[in-house]
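Repro case for the chain-ordering regression, as requested:
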Amino acid sequence: MTAASPALAPLPYRVVERRDDTADTAEIVLEPVVSALPPFVPGQFAMVYAFGVGDIPLSLSGIAGSRLTHTIRAVGAVSGALHALQPGATVGVRGPLGTGWNLTAAAGRDLVVVAGGLGLAPLRPLVHAALATPHRYGRLNILIGARTPADLLCTRDIDRWRAVGARVQVTVDRPDDSWQGDVGVVTALLDRARFAPAGAAAFVCGPEAMIRATARDLVHRGLAPDRIRISLERTMHCGTGHCGHCQLGPLLLCRDGPVVTWARAEALLAVREL
Amino acid sequence: MTARGRRILSALAPEHRDRLLGFARDVSLPAGVRLFEEGGAADRFWIIRTGIVVLDVYEPGRGAMVVETLGEGELLGWSWLFEPYRWHLGARTRGDVEAYEFDAHRVRAALDEDPAFGLAVTRCVAGVAIGRRLRAARTRLLDLYGPPGSHTTAAGGEAP
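-- result from build under test --
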């Protein structure tokens, strides 16, 4: 097997766990059937193939050795097929693909993690990595925006993150009668986050409009654009930088992304045709 | 505008901040207190020091629907600054709240009397409170976290 093959040929992985997260989102845990792909780092993604249906790019919402966790929202044919898989089923996986969050570059800094909707999934391994080595970083802020309380991901994690010292704030757009948390946009939570802007690093994932608003707000507060990392999405097909479907100006996001700095992305995101 | 967030006082120059605070009185508001109702006279306003205040709209059959929450450092109420000086939403405390409370008549009179002070406070309210809340409301109208459109993503979805 050549060095390039992990990105080109899918390896069989078996579903060993499945759990519904929300009404349309489930978490599946995969283990290699025979041999494992090279290690993933937080922020990278895999092409996951539902046999007979097709493949889609999926970020990792959990990494534990060779066990890969994906959080899947059923919105189309392939994601619907993957979402419906039960333990024992087999899928094909290519990867690791793309860039990671590069958490180690934020050593010594306060961390500001901002997630919108499904964007919490790719940030989850980053949070786990930060919590696993808390002495390396300053204060950990986790700001989460969701559509409704029922759409909130990682609810079990959130309690645990709080218990081990992370400052977690959650806001929703549409509360129900039982919701006792914040209501509004996720950027509104930045005021109550605890970080020194000049010495902080931020990690942002969610809908692009939310990413832009958050990154601008963070820059306005004094964060350097090259210390704001965002995860971008474009239509990805090959995952290897060959087909060009995920092109954003000079970047091929499946290869040069999905994680890029705001310093690199801001001007590109201002061009609508990109 | 020098504000780096929604904290209303940090958006004012020190001389204007001190003058505004000269009109303030400290209040402690217990949980569940209704501060104002939609349509009521906007004769007071607050700057929240600690705690959460809920802005809501009452709809028969559905009760008080929460529109937004406001927290530490935020201005509660801007309708006092513009005619017809009536609240557009209702407000109640969620938990215990500590706040600065202002008499709107006195502050308006001071703003009218000193154009520089008036301009500073009006800009501050418009930029930090009204502008940000307008942008937030527009963003929420987009329903960004709703079902995705027709594209393939790396975060966990794909083309319907």
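Ordering looks correct now. Helices of chain B lie at 14-21, 104-113, 115-141.
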